[in-house]
Amino acid sequence: MSQDYRFIGKPTPRKDALAIVTGKAEYIDDITKSDMLYGMVLRSPYPHAEIRKIETDKAEALPGIMAVLTYKDVPDWKAGMPRHVPVLDKRLRYVGDAVAIVAGETREIAKEALELIDVEYEQFPPVYDMEEAIQSGAPQLHDDFPGNQVFKFPAFGPETISEVVFGDVDKGFEEADFVSEGSYGYENIPNPLPIEPPGVIARWEDENRLTVWSGTQSASWHRFIMQSKMGFPDIRAIDTHCGGSFGSKNYVPMPLFYAAALAKATGRPVKVYYNKDEHFGAFVLRLGSRFRGKIGIKKDGTVTAVSGEWFVDTGAFSDMAQAQIAVGCGEAQLMLRCQNWDLRTKLICTNRSASGIVRGFGGQEFVAALSPLLQQVMEKASLDPVQFFKKNYVKPGEGYTWREGTHWVCRGRDYSGTIDRGAQAFGWKDKWKGWLQPTETRGVKRIGVGVGVHGNADVGEDESEAYVRLNPDATATIHVSISESGMGQRSNLCKMAAEVLQIPIERVNITPADTLVNPFDFGLVGSRGTYAVGSAVIKAAEDAREKLIEMAAPKLKASPEDLETMDGKIYLRQSPQERISWSRALGIMQTCMGFGRFEPDHSIPNFLIQFVEIEVDTETGRLKLLRVLSATDVGQIIDPPSLEGQLNGALGSAGIDTALFEESILDRVSGHILNTNMIDYKWRTFMDLPEMENLILETRMPSHRFKAIGVGEITTSPGPGAILMAVSNALGIPVTEYPLTPDKIMKALGRIEESGKQ
């Protein structure tokens, strides 16, 4: 531990732990409002069609139905980047696209009404492959996007990056000793699959004031993002507990549209809560990603040039894809120290459920697609991948262009020591036998090892504001618009404030995630909770403490700089027996409020290296993940169990297991996703957990008072490429396609023939 603190770095019970385990914590499905209706969605059975005729008379006549809306009578609101996704549309672009919405007194009545809506469709040819979608004559999804290419959008301002182009790639390739070229994809569009489906309640207080309740990850998004999509109403956003998100429920624009439109039509609050089938088939999937290009390196592992095109499949529409591309372009520069880049991107629409925000946010998608090519060129050069990654991850003093187009100079740490410590703990030196060499052979079973790295400079992204209010009874209240979606961040913010104020954590409370009563916060994205939000809370607590001390000084006949406070008492540093209570300093009818604000700082990238060991059964093609070791440096651990939980989350939430079995299986004949349930969508159970080890270093970072940064966002990201490497080494044959299901293993071994492309 880098420094001895009273609370920081020590495991403490979460503030909400008892409420969660006793069932008292309220989730969106637990919430009802007086006179509330239930909204449901009629969905398209076709991947690409247009509504020629729609009749709603029978549904409207059903007792208990209060509204039936179609594209003809919904508000003119639009989501997406740029705004191109209406509440309902005449054109339908994927199986599950919304055709009509209804509001009923019960869910059962609303569901019955859906069956009474008569629709006549005209079907159009669909397109599922992103490169086919941009060919001349391909079916067109949006009139605004000729050739199905979504144009650039200033997601992070006018200089938002969508490419990495600098240096001289021709010269770089001339200087290379080894060059590899090819096309590889990460296109299994896995589902991040939080336990709880998306849900929202909307109620109009008057013509221009909307209150929204939701179980989402970032409460403020339903205000500051959705306002511009809805004609700038005054939106109050309130978050319940969120039953997991993994990025996908930062906000829920389409469910909010449906609930708000129905609430406006009926004059009553409306809840829209997706079932699991809708969650799988009509909500957020990971972006499809394909890289076609080449990489050049020297014998010593120096990367001399990277060039190529990154094709990104966003599905039926773009929610945040341009932002994800910008972050992916930034993260590529962190991973590969290279002076010559020509990386171009294409964002493409296809006829399947839309992609959106998923943990890893663009960087994971790019690196997973790049990994096979990177491994190929390392193999040519006979380079140890651990040494390659150590050489090529960004170092302090080096620069990179981040998502908003600003050039940043790294103020963080050299993570070489983290890499060495991780390799030693894993036993890499003994297990690594060279490229395409198994670590061990046990009859028909072969063992292979692999490794991957990732990093992100968004730990200091965007703005945060917080108030800390000190009360006469020696309690403190944090005012911050932060939701709870499983990471324990609300408790950790209480821990930071408690450390500053030196009062027990039990005496620190935090306001509900409600934009009406809290200052602005961007939300819990990009691992920003520890540095960005934490900085705002720390500054607010320090400001409040300073004001309290100033109020106490005259009563103790001392200078403020001579005073300390602990456990609700203020005392002279040199004479601790001379003390007064907070209530004496404040009076019983006064509080003391401090304010803190954080400004963006992308100069301290985080880092994670992940080692995997896998067993391949060459008779059945079955893969068994034996061991995962993750190594990182977080500066200072805030709460050990919370951090361990984030690191152990590397498996699911569309992480490591996307290289093993997680995928959304799209039928390219009917357009249906075939595995929209928890049986057919393959995911890891507790019975299948591998050995998990986490090596966490604490080298003080130049961040805030506690010298800490977050790392949770990237724990899923290095794993997919590491799995490909491990399986390739076990088999002695390069395997490059995600996920590595048994049939692909058997094909690689020549045991079964290739099937035709569906």
Describe this structure in words.
This protein is an alpha+beta fold and 758 residues long. The chain is built from 20 helices and 31 strands. The chain has a seven-stranded mixed sheet with strand order 3-7-1-14-11-12-13, with helices on both faces.
Characteristic key phrases:
about 750 residues; alpha+beta; seven-stranded mixed beta sheet; five-stranded mixed beta sheet; 31 strands; about 25% helix; globular
* Strand percentage: 15-25%
In round numbers, the mean pLDDT is 96
Poorly predicted residue ranges: none
* Distance between the first and last residues' Cα: 54 Å
> Helical proportion?
10-25%
Number of helices: 20
Q: What would you report as the Rg, rounded to the nearest angstrom?
A: 27 Å
> What is the strand tally?
31
For the sheet with most strands, the description reads:
7 strands, mixed
Oligomer: single chain
Helix/strand class: alpha+beta
Global morphology: globular
In short:
The protein has 758 residues and is an alpha+beta fold.
How does the SSE layout of this entry go?
Blueprint: H1 17-21, E1 37-43, E2 49-55, H2 57-61, E3 65-69, E4 78-79, E5 85-86, E6 91-92, E7 98-104, H3 107-114, E8 118-123, H4 130-133, E9 164-166, H5 169-175, E10 178-186, E11 199-206, E12 209-214, H6 221-224, H7 226-229, E13 234-239, H8 253-266, E14 270-273, H9 276-281, E15 288-297, E16 303-315, H10 321-335, E17 341-349, H11 363-380, H12 385-392, E18 399-401, E19 407-409, H13 416-426, H14 428-431, E20 440-442, E21 445-454, E22 464-470, E23 476-479, H15 489-501, E24 508-510, H16 528-556, E25 563-566, E26 569-572, E27 579-581, H17 582-586, E28 592-598, E29 608-617, E30 623-633, H18 640-648, E31 691-697, H19 719-731, H20 742-748
Parallel strand pairs: 1-14, 12-13, 16-17, 23-24, 30-31
Antiparallel strand pairs: 1-7, 2-6, 2-8, 3-7, 4-5, 9-17, 10-15, 11-12, 11-14, 15-16, 18-19, 20-21, 21-29, 22-23, 22-28, 25-26, 26-27, 29-30
Helix pairs in contact: 10-11, 11-19, 12-13, 15-16
